[in-house]
Amino acid sequence: METPPFLRVLEGEARVYRRVWRGSVISTFLNPVLFLAAMGLGLGRLVDERSGGSGLDGLTYLAFLAPGLLAATAMQTGAGDSSWPVMAGIKWRRTYEAILATPVGVGSLTVGHIAWVGVRLVFVSVAFVLVMAAFGAVGLWSGLAAVPAAVLTGLAFAAPMVAYTAGLKGEQGLSSMFRFGIVPLFLFSGTFFPISQLPDWLEPVAWVTPLWHGVELCRAIALGLTPTPPVWLSVAYLTAWTVGGTWLAVVRMRRRLVR
Q1: CA-to-CA distance for 92 and 98, rounded, in angstroms?
Q2: Alpha-carbon torsion, ordered 252, 176, 205, 129, to 10 deg
Q3: Counted domains in the chain
Q4: 197-205 contacts: CB < 8 A, separation 24 or more?
Q5: Alpha helices (runs of H) in 36-146, residue ranges in sequence order
């Protein structure tokens, strides 16, 4: 049976990563250590002393924070791996032109890249869960159970980000997206505090962000809580972002690359 072309793209990404993985493995483990030590233990001690878990479902701040950071890290990984690397393939290194000179089409190229981002998300999420468990924030198995939710959260950002990047002429739009899109979502989608503490007019905005659904989903699974939206609704919402983003990414990549 002939291998689907998108798997060839996935294989190519994996072969490249096999040679450069050492450059990312340290940050993959170091980032959660620094975040959980500074925010979960450092700031968390002050929060626990002042609030006694009030507003955090009776949890310590470390336990509340860790699953939210898992989802937020997946968002950042998905967005990061679908922005500058895609721009490099289109404009700077122009590797996509070489790929399209083979039997691989634009659809397979796009889906293959998003699939590779999914593989990267698995690696990053598992590493984050191992650090969470080492800090005592969650149990190892309950944390690992939240990995699929984190991967889905990352894909919900990765696919639309490919579509967004395909429409850009330069990298300035990427910096703006992270500055005015990804960073505010990271801060105000329930990662660090319940969105009920946001101003009343801003809370409904948080409800429609994919990251809030990812945070609620990861937190519910990892800690055994009842999420505010039903699990099926968050899964369906994140899946819709992933599928719709992939379709749009294929359309915009074809418009950009096929002349």
Answers
A1: 13
A2: 90
A3: 1
A4: 197/55
A5: 44-51, 61-81, 84-87, 95-100, 106-134, 140-145
Where does residue 2 fall: left (phi above 0), alpha (psi -120 to 50 degrees), or beta otherwise?
A: beta
- The b-or-e profile of 167-197 (16+ CB within 10 A means b, else e) is ebeeeeebeebbeeebeebbebbbbbbebee
**Amino acid symbol at 67:** P
The string over 69-108, giving b where at least 16 C-beta atoms fall within 10 Å of a residue's C-beta and e elsewhere, is bbbbbbbbbbbbbbbbbbbebbeeeeebeebbeeebbbbb
CA dihedral of residues 219, 222, 228, 229 (deg, nearest 10): 100
The CB density around residue 213, as the number of other CB atoms within 10 Å, is 30
pLDDT (tens digit, 9 = 90+) per residue, 98-131? 999 999 999 999 999 999 999 999 999 999 999 9
Q: For 8-62, what is each residue's pLDDT tens digit?
A: 999 899 998 888 777 777 777 888 888 888 887 887 777 877 765 555 667 889 9
180 CB-near residues (< 8 Å, 6+ apart): none
| Domain ranges, residue 42 | 5-257
Q: How many Å apart are CA 25 and CA 21, to the nearest integer?
A: 6
Other C-beta atoms closer than 10 Å to the C-beta of 50 total: 9
Amino acid at residue number 41: L
Whether residue 3 is predicted with pLDDT greater than 90 in this model: the reply is no
Length of the chain: 259
Distance CA 60, CA 249 (A): 40
206, 185 contact by CB (below 8 A): no
* CA 209 to the chain's CA centroid: 13
DSSP structural state of residue 200: T
| Distance between CA atoms of residues 168 and 182, nearest Å | 17
